[in-house]
Amino acid sequence: MAKKSEGKAVASSLRLGKSARSADTTPRSAKPSSLLDTRVIYCGDNLEQLAKLPDACVDLIYIDPPFNSNRNYEVFWGETKEKRAFEDRHESTRAYIDYMRPRCVQLARVLKKTGSFYYHCDWHASHYVKVMLN
Q1: Which pairing describes strands 41-42 and 2-3: parallel, antiparallel, or unpaired?
Q2: pTM value?
Q3: Is residue 9 in a domain?
């Protein structure tokens, strides 16, 4: 389900919009794309959200998924020191790639032929990710 955000980013959110190279001169009330509403942050499992999008509708994709670092993370957030935590563990590197592959297939489907794709990862799986993306 898509919901509008009021300045808060969600780790699993997918932000769709204009390329970073073009200046946004569209009035806030106008829908800048005929393919989808770029004023919305689509929250939830990105695999489910991507399935709802039309082919070749996105100019720029940047993902920062779990790195498969085999660690647990805890962060205390904001003035209230809200505890946010997540596990970055998979059964194996193969399991991690198997988790990411369908997402990358969907990302490739929605990316325009002239679009750009950035995958943020670290050394734990970067070589396997590169092979998967090729």
Answers
A1: antiparallel
A2: 0.70
A3: no
